[in-house]
Write a structure and sequence with these properties.
Number of domains: 2
Strand order of the largest sheet: 2-1-5-8-7
Number of helices: 6
Largest sheet: 5 strands, mixed
């Protein structure tokens, strides 16, 4: 990515090489190739964009701003503003929404307006647990149909999955804010070289 600087200001951002007119001169797309040096491009006002991602945060947890471009010190820098944490809890329609005419006709004050991270993360845990249990559902079906006992190892495994899923859901529910949720999902290396996260993992059936 490049930018065109004219009279000390950025007048155009160029995402890919293309022919262009600068001043009264028509240039081919070759000005962006290795045929031109950095100094030669800058002499006609073309500067390669340098990226500053220091404010950019994980989009799973945060909403990043659009990039802004600035020219200073002989270079163009693309940077982000301060990221906003995604809502960790559900939001509801308020009386103010109703008074402002923003309340949909099929909604009432107090109804869910948008789902927060907690709801979606718990929904994912439930789906993952259901997927794991599905692998051994046939034992339960066989018992119901033919009376064949379910092995204790399977019974214990299924109980462990449900117990751990409930623990994970509680941890998510109790998280005070979005950074706390992010911490639950952050893996760190342990002394034995393994990587674990505070939320833990759902049990898997050993083969």
């Amino acid at each position: 990515m490049w930018g065109l600087v004219e009279s000390g200001s950025i007048t155009k951002i160029i995402n890919k090489p293309k022919a262009m007119v600068i001043g009264d001169i028509q240039y081919s797309r070759n000005i962006f190739s290795s045929r031109w040096t950095k100094a030669e491009r800058e002499a006609i006002g073309i500067y390669e964009v340098e990226f500053d991602d220091s404010n950019k945060k994980d989009k799973q947890w945060y909403i990043n701003t659009d990039q802004s471009f600035a020219f200073a010190g002989g270079k163009i820098t693309a940077s982000y503003g301060s990221a906003t944490a995604k809502a960790h809890a559900d939001t509801t329609w308020t009386q103010a929404d109703s008074d402002n005419g923003d309340l949909p006709s099929d909604k009432s004050v107090g109804d869910i307006k948008t789902r927060g991270l907690k709801y979606n993360l718990i929904k994912t845990v439930k789906a993952q647990a259901a997927g794991i249990l599905q692998d051994t559902d046939w034992y339960v079906v066989r018992k119901a149909d033919a009376g064949t006992a379910v092995p204790s190892s399977i019974t214990n495994h299924r109980a462990a999955v449900r117990t751990k899923a409930a623990e994970m859901e509680t941890a998510i529910t109790n998280a005070s804010d979005t950074p706390a949720l992010k911490t639950l999902y952050t893996y760190t290396e342990q002394e034995d070289g393994s990587f674990t996260r505070p939320l833990g993992e759902l049990p898997r059936l050993e083969s």
